[in-house]
C-alpha cells in the first residue's frame, strides 16, 4: 500500500533534482557567456561538476536498467525450467 507512495515520492524528487540540475547548467552557461569567464566553485568549474554529476546519474540509471533486464531474464529462465519440470512429471 505505502510502497507506491514512496516510489512516487522518490520519482518526484528525482524529477525535481534533474530539473534543478538542468536549470543550474543553463543559468551557469548564461552567466559565463555574459561575464566571459568560467564560474568556479572551490576552484573547479561548476559546469564540469554538473557534467560529471549528469554522467554518474546516467551510469546509475543504466546499471539499474541492466539489473532489471538481468532479473527478468533470470525469472523467465526459472519459470521456464519449472514449467518444463512440471510437464515432465
Write the layout of secondary structure elements.
Elements: H1 3-35, E1 40-41, E2 44-45, H2 46-88
Antiparallel strand pairs: 1-2
The share of residues in helices is: over 70%
Which structural class should the secondary elements be placed in? mainly alpha
Number of helices: 2
Straight-line N-to-C gap: 38 Å
Radius of gyration: 22 Å
Major sheet details: 2 strands, antiparallel
The tally of structural domains comes to 1
Quaternary structure classification: single chain
Q: Which overall shape is indicated by the principal axes computed on the Cα atoms?
A: elongated
Low-confidence sequence ranges = none
Strand content: under 5%
How many distinct beta strands?
2
Order of helices and strands: HEEH
- Mean pLDDT score: 84
Strand order of the largest sheet: 1-2
Task: Summarize the model shown.
With 89 residues, the chain is mainly alpha-helical. 85% of the residues lie in helices and 4% in strands. The chain has one domain.
Please explain how this structure is put together:
The chain starts with a helix and ends with a helix. It has two helices and two strands; from the N terminus they run αββα. It has a two-stranded antiparallel sheet. With 89 residues, the protein is mainly alpha-helical. The model has no long low-confidence stretch (mean pLDDT 84).
Keyword list:
single chain, 89 residues, mainly alpha, two-stranded antiparallel ribbon, 4% strand
Amino acid at each position: 500500500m505505502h510502497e507506491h507512495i514512496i516510489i512516487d515520492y522518490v520519482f518526484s524528487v528525482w524529477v525535481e533534482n534533474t530539473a534543478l540540475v538542468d536549470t543550474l547548467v543553463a543559468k551557469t552557461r548564461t552567466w559565463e557567456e555574459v561575464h566571459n569567464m568560467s564560474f568556479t566553485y572551490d576552484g573547479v568549474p561548476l559546469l564540469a561538476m554538473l557534467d560529471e554529476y549528469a554522467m554518474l546519474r546516467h551510469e546509475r540509471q543504466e546499471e539499474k536498467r541492466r539489473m532489471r533486464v538481468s532479473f527478468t531474464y533470470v525469472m523467465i529462465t526459472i519459470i521456464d525450467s519449472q514449467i518444463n519440470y512440471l510437464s515432465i512429471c
